[in-house]
Amino acid sequence: xxxxxxxxxxxxxxxxxxxxxxxxxxxxxxxxxxxxxxxxxxxxxxxxxxxxxxxxxxxxxxxxxxxxxxxxxxxxxxxxxxxxxxxxxxxxxxxxxxxxxxxxxxxxxxxxxxxxxxxxxxxxxxxxxxxxxxxxxxxxxxxxxxxxxxxxxxxxxxxxxxxxxxxxxxxxxxxxxxxxxxxxxxxxxxxxxxxxxxxxxxxxxxxxxxxxxxxxxxxxxxxxxxxxxxxxxxxxxxxxxxxxxxxxxxxxxxxxxxxxxxxxxxxxxxxxxxxxxxxxxxxxxxxxxxxxxxxxxxxxxxxxxxxxxxxxxxxxxxxxxxxxxxxxxxxxxxxxxxxxxxxxxxxxxxxxxxxxxxxxxxxxxxxxxxxxxxxxxxxxxxxxxxxxxxxxxxxxxxxxxxxxxxxxxxxxxxxxxxxxxxxxx
Amino acid sequence: xxxxxxxxxxxxxxxxxxxxxxxxxxxxxxxxxxxxxxxxxxxxxxxxxxxxxxxxxxxxxxxxxxxxxxxxxxxxxxxxxxxxxxxxxxxxxxxxxxxxxxxxxxxxxxxxxxxxxxxxxxxxxxxxxxxxxxxxxxxxxxxxxxxxxxxxxxxxxxxxxxxxxxxxxxxxxxxxxxxxxxxxxxxxxxxxxxxxxxxxxxxxxxxxxxxxxxxxxxxxxxxxxxxxxxxxxxxxxxxxxxxxxxxxxxxxxxxxxxxxxxxxxxxxxxxxxxxxxxxxxxxxxxxxxxxxxxxxxxxxxxxxxxxxx
Lengths: 425, 309
Ligand SMILES: Nc1ncnc2c1ncn2[C@@H]1O[C@H](COP(=O)(O)OP(=O)(O)OP(=O)(O)O)[C@@H](O)[C@H]1O
Ligand SMILES: [Mg+2]
Description:
A: 11 helices, 20 strands, B: mainly alpha, 2 domains, binds magnesium ion
């Protein structure tokens, strides 16, 4: 049980800055995920929390007390490594029981042969054994106690590494990409299991991954890192629905968000391929912008259709990928627009054919994410669009400026926001 | 091009498949033959000659040689010189083995974490390995000289009086063993360093999180068990090298004083090249080989069970 705080943590390796001014406050019992591209400093940060790496400046607090002077094992945190770091010469039992043996037995009671002399050792070992068994039972590896790590499958090793972390009842779990060595199917399974483990234990989890799906599905909050800084912290839905930065928008969501070049018109609103959108830009006229549209925010219709309040871009279907529950459509924009857009439609969508007349891509301007040249979100999209077109879409109302991304099928209520059946494509 | 493709696609007749197999076999033997020939000429033939000589009373330069059967071995069993030299050899090995392995490990562990100074120390400790022991023996002889040597000079200055390292029967074997350790430590250190760098770093980090506080904890939990295979190899090579001790004895003590440093190889050398009893020396050599073989077999089987995971 612990609250973990980071106060302006910076780190450089031989003059090369890797982390700069990281501020983070992880509440007791929270599942916080650090996510970001490779090399952005996630592992370095989690190793600083664990005490394996000294920070260059700043302070780590656990339950309000600075722990910078404490050795890793004194910080009461457990770590699960990407490589699992199981001790290859020990059986599963010893692997899991080692933290307890280290804290409860003195040096003589751990020395080979000499340890036989200690009567206390036998008593303590019996205790340890029952605790190890309790943990292995929870993780369903109690049949493997006599095996060595080399005789285990990847998933079983993963569980042993988890067991070794759990057996100490640590104040916080630190996990550095614990699932990245598993195959795709097992990864999905372990994802659920880890989330359930967190619910059951109620302990603070700090979890590192570069897989945005893991971050979105497991966490209470996600901190997106880039280049040694935290770009945005928030609930998974926040990062998806209101990315504060272009990089966050690009990183979160599969397939990735569509980006279109835009600029600020002379009237001060966002201009996309020559047409003005009812979005106020609050940047000097003529400056460049980037407009992001999520693949599922786009509705397809025959060319020539128009819907009130929706913006239209003409396009032609290039290819369609059938994923079962949905189709991924790659659409080339046609004049006056240009570029390629990916949009997803439900699997039972009527088959689209790439006829020569092309398609109309329709989207609500309020569903757009607008970023300036530096990649910052231009936040008054909401205000401007709300003023321009008082939204009648219940999904948009429930989620603020953006539309509910999880479009239900026609005739069914929308689960996430409670609104009625949404527009059908 | 077309023709060969067709030929491969067509079912191969049985006769041709057999011929193919024969050709492959011949080719395999052809590749192995040079290595086998070398092994035969340099190891197996001399070994066979040795075995034959050990059954005879052959003397270097003698014109007639008699076949003695097992007489040489019978003589060896009761030979007090052989018994003494064997005992001396075992004492020597018993000092050198723990000394050279333990020190090698200690130095390797100390050097492993150093960054800048590591190469320097590596070179310093490895120098004795590259030097010629016979030349260095002369240096040691000077260093340990009762009157002129710096070691005794120091002992005198500290008020201990001088020690005749090489002429006092009780000191001569430990002194030779110390020189043997000096020569072997660098080599063992390099082997241990290789073993150490094969241990993944995150095991130490995991151990640190799991509560291994001190260097002793880390050593006992991670380093020592994971160095098992390396240690086994080092023990075997060190004990065999120590068992073969010869040059320091030949140059510095000639087995003396009063045979107190006469080791097995030196006894064999005396029999063969000083007394020209080639047949008897051959028998002793076979006994020597048997010990070396026994060593490696014993250590492989005893240690193998404990070091593999
Ligand atoms: N010991 C070190 N010495 C020098 N540079 C280092 C060291 N450790 C990490 N770095 C650098 O720090 C940066 C961040 O590394 P880090 O391991 O934290 O990335 P990461 O976000 O965990 O990446 P990944 O997702 O690939 O694991 C990288 O550019 C890396 O090269
Ligand atoms: Mg990493």
